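Researcher: Let's try something more involved. This one mixes different molecule types, so please make sure each is placed in the same coordinate frame as the others.
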Amino acid sequence: MENLVEIRDLRVEATTDAGRRIEIIKGIDLDVAPGEIVALIGESGSGKTTIALTIMGYARPGCRISSGSVTVAGKDMVTLSERQRARVRGLEVSYVPQSAAAAFNPSKRIIDQVVEVTRIHRLMPLAQAREKAISLFRALSLPNPEEIGNRYPHQVSGGQLQRLAAAMALIADPKLVIFDEPTTALDVTTQIEVLRAFKAVMKKSGIAGVYVSHDLAVVAQIADRIVVLRGGDVQEVGSTADILSDAKHPYTRELLSAFEPKSRGESVVVAAPEHAPLLKVNGLIAGYGPVQADGLPLVKAVQEASLSLERGRNLGIIGESGCGKSTLARSIAGILPASAGQLILDGHELARSARQRSREQLRELQIVFQHADTSLNPAKTIEEILGRPLKFYHGMKGKVRDARIDELLDMVRLPKTLRSRTPAELSGGQKQRVNFARALAAEPKLIVCDEITSALDTVVAAAVIDLLKEMQRELSLSYIFISHDLSVVEAICDEIVVMYNGRKVEEITPAISKVPQHPYSKLLFSSVPKLDPSWLDRLERDPELVKTYVHG
Amino acid sequence: MTTSTTLPRRVSYRFSWVGMIGFAIILFWAVIALLAPHITPYPVGEIIDEDYFGPISSKLLLGSDYLGRDMLSRIIMGARYTVGISLAAVCLACFSGAALGMAAAVIGGWFDTLLSRLLDALNSIPSKLSGLVVAAAVGSSLPVLILMLAVIYTPGAYRFARSLAVNVNTMDYITVARTRGEGIPYVVFSEILPNITGPLLADFGIRFVFVVLLLSGLSFLGLGVQPPYADWGALVHENIGGLPFGAPAVIVPSLAIASLTISVNLLIDNLPKKIRDRST
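Model: All components are placed in one shared frame. Result:
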């Protein structure tokens, strides 16, 4: 037997609420050689996780493997009994989930959970298992390997927890490890450490891997072979170098093109320079917790941020999780009233709380949230969602309003037939377009976009960014664009503000200089994965800098 | 089931047969309550049987009570009181409870704290006991009964609605509505209510059962519906003397109470489910 995993004509069916069966995996073939890392890449709903789970003989509730075979080390996982499968799981095939935080039991010490596999399969005595776990912690370059296992899951950071989850998967020396988007939830500077650790351990012990991801650049660093999936079907298979340099399938090219750096193009400066800026933020402080003696909150998420945005231009705010970028957006919109500082929109000072702002001021400044799922009321139709701001701000009724709703749908490139649907019946990209159309309905001057593309697939996100640019040309809007994704911000913004730990550390104007000066900005910019497969190995980071700024 | 749902853009519902049975029994009692004066075979107050606690016969389908009155007619009229009073009380309780609960969740702050503590205090008094005290103090008339039952069951409905609304209130679409400048009534009734109607209806059902049982209990103790009127609880109370004789007069009203409460439970546990099938 040459290959470790051989999947032949695999089909997986799902049963809908109405009792209909639909095929979600449509007869795929896949091989994984011993020691090889194969990446499954595709957008959400392409079946990449479903395929990865079938290697353990598992199908999620409501799904079942309807035909085909999944041979792992000579055993067909499809025909094995549940008891026999359990013997293979953890021992020969193991799994690293996307969210390690959800995979660990918060009430047990980490080491007890890591060695659990050896106890279940009666592999080795406890003391030996603990020793092995500690050596794995060391191999995964976790800080303080002897002690870290005695902590509880909430006492370690996200990047560390992800590596501990990998240790849990590796403890029984499996032949194959399935990684299900293990770095998607991590910051870019943390992601590098985790990827490096994974890569080193896998190469050293010659374990085969199946790496599920939607991020081509991450996959390029770790995989030997890439399988491109779409709609439950294999689109293209090839070695990493081949896929990156010589993609045959149009869909693969589409994925690749989403990575090409897009220049902002010539910026459209509508107003003459002598005009006052559209938005001016002076020394804004905002945070959470009880108010202290100095009138400021206990935890200051944003500390003295000052920004200025010209009409028709865009401002990008980037930073990693916890840097205060979303809090800044919320205090600009008045959702979380700032404790100190001044907000001036179009020459008029804004009240800190949205409740004290006039309807006209509220209309001029709209905010669009990251999760279209929670931003659109699931009990309402698209028509009602878009109709409300029209009635509320512009007093539109009846036919006029109907016509305007059609116009708005048309603007965001959605068919009019969606009017009577509820948000649950739309795709992620469609929902985000509706979310954006609702902000447009108010006819604002400024739209604050809080991570609006981060929940979307690469190709869909690129389309949404194009839409934003187009709207700007047509409606002379300004955006404040908040994101952790540098490429997205670079694609649309005239100016970029880098935030770290609640403070603005640098302001960059890409048109003038693309090179960041501040050490943190440098670190952040250099941490964004590139499509080049040798990028991770060549990347050199100043250890002092990493120590100061990376807490993963 | 599979063929009917493949039609595009048609909302389908799935309704289990258990739920349908529950619904049918509720409908049956509702119709009886509505049409009561027109379908009673004999006048309610008239003594027509020379024997008391008479057995089931072709003339008296459910026998006679302790005075020799027709039991069927009394059950039919009793349905009016049991269903009517309970429904009025539960509507009042659930409406005020839900409105206050949602408002408390949205407004928050001291309004929420004050209202919650006040209703908690009310909730801490045992329901039967407070019912007894009120009925004994101000006397038992129909409006007093309805109001008392409504007040007793408002805190529960409030708690339930508030906890649901608190969850919905953290959603981004509520933040969007508030930054749009919407007022509290719009947020409560247009943004929150449509998302919690299902659970609220289920709560309405459970609370209706509680009210029926409390009302029947009070009437059984002689503090509920007063003679010459009688609800089902009062009918059990009146005819409790027939128990040693196995008279239908004491069994039938008990069965009526059981059938109503059980079928409401069956219905709310098996409410029609909307079939989601996005792929069509």
